[in-house]
Design a protein that fits this description.
The chain is of the alpha/beta class. The protein folds into 2 domains: about 130 residues, Trna Endonuclease, Chain: A, domain 1, CATH 3.40.1350; about 45 residues, no CATH class. It is built from 6 helices and 6 strands. The longest helix has 30 residues. The chain is globular, with a radius of gyration of 19 Å. The two termini are about 25 Å apart. The model has no long low-confidence stretch (mean pLDDT about 80).
């Protein structure tokens, strides 16, 4: 199972987020595009950033929204809680590098249940600002458009297979 799906399940079932999305954000211009974003019933943002390698983790700090100076300027636009999610094998290397404003989660190891576990709890951002109703509506529209485009791709693929065609030998086939 992939880490993004595990993060989405964590936000939905353990943090009780009513909206959970992947690679979408209503505040993309200030906070970037998070891997997984959850919205609680009180319209607070919870964010999980998935990192699969040490270099990927270190490169994240060059992003504008992770820069300490920028965080001080836009603190109210940042999520209420933020976690990094790393594979089990990467945990020991990343643990000392996690900033004080972020939590840390690890993916499952071998022969473990397919769920994430919190290693370092995420502190609450005291300056966080709840989403406006307009931002929530924008996020729901993003999710709806994504679902619609996937349904259209699925319908086109199903139609192709019903005709007896296979898309794999045809390099010009587009979904």
């Amino acid at each position: 199972m992939n880490l993004e799906l595990m993060a989405m399940r964590f936000l939905r079932w353990q943090k009780r987020c009513c909206i959970v999305v992947c690679e979408r954000s209503p505040r993309e211009w200030t906070c970037g595009k998070p891997d997984v974003l959850g919205v609680t019933q009180s319209r607070c943002l919870l964010e999980i950033e998935v990192k699969r390698s040490l270099s990927d983790f270190k490169a994240d700090f060059t992003k504008r929204s992770r820069n300490r100076a920028v965080r001080e300027l836009i603190g109210d636009k940042l999520p209420k809680q933020f976690w990094y999610l790393v594979p089990c094998e990467l945990l020991k290397k990343v643990e000392p590098l996690v900033p004080d404003w972020a939590g840390l989660m690890r993916g499952p190891g071998r022969n473990e249940p397919q769920a994430v576990s919190v290693v370092k709890p995420a502190p609450t951002n005291p300056e966080h600002q709840r989403l406006t109703v307009r931002e929530c509506c924008r996020l729901v529209l993003m999710v709806n458009n994504h679902a619609l485009s996937n349904a259209e791709r699925y319908a086109a693929l199903t139609e192709t297979f019903e005709r007896g065609y296979s898309c794999w030998p045809n390099p010009d086939f587009q979904i």
